[in-house]
Amino acid sequence: MDGTRVTVRCRDCSFAATYESLRDARAAVDDHESTTDHGVGWTIESLAAGVSQAGADAGVCGRPECANEDSPLVDPAPPETER
Ligand SMILES: [Zn+2]
Fold first, then answer.
1. 48-60 residues labelled b (16+ CB within 10 A) or e (exposed)
2. What is the DSSP secondary structure assignment for residue 41, as one 8-state letter?
3. Rounded to the nearest whole angstrom, what is the distance from the C-alpha of residue 48 to the centroid of ligand 1?
4. pTM of the model
5. How far is the C-alpha of 72 from the C-alpha of 70, rounded, in Å?
6. 28-62 confidence digits (pLDDT tens)
7. Is 3 left (phi over 0), alpha (psi -120 to 50) or beta?
8. Residues paired with 10 in a beta bridge
9. How far, in Å, from the CA of 32 to the mean position of ligand 1?
10. Nearest to 13 by CA among 35, 59, 62
11. Residue 6 burial by Cβ neighbours in a 10 Å radius (0-12, 13-18, 19+)
């Protein structure tokens, strides 16, 4: 997982941290959300763009608002004007 970095940032307080693995980041997010009831967002950064894209497509955070709109795999509302 060389070059992968996950930035975690809380929307309700100043909590922020950077982790080098998704597992550590997820644990930190779960811990902070469960202990404070805050909403924590995270950003996956990677030197390898393909890895970052794959993570976004997988919907790692599990929230619809985090869906990657640039991804062909995510198409919640196709424009009706096309047909
Ligand atoms: Zn917080």
1. eeebbbebbeeeb
2. E
3. 29
4. 0.53
5. 7
6. 999 999 999 999 998 988 766 555 555 555 555 55
7. left
8. 40
9. 6
10. 35
11. buried
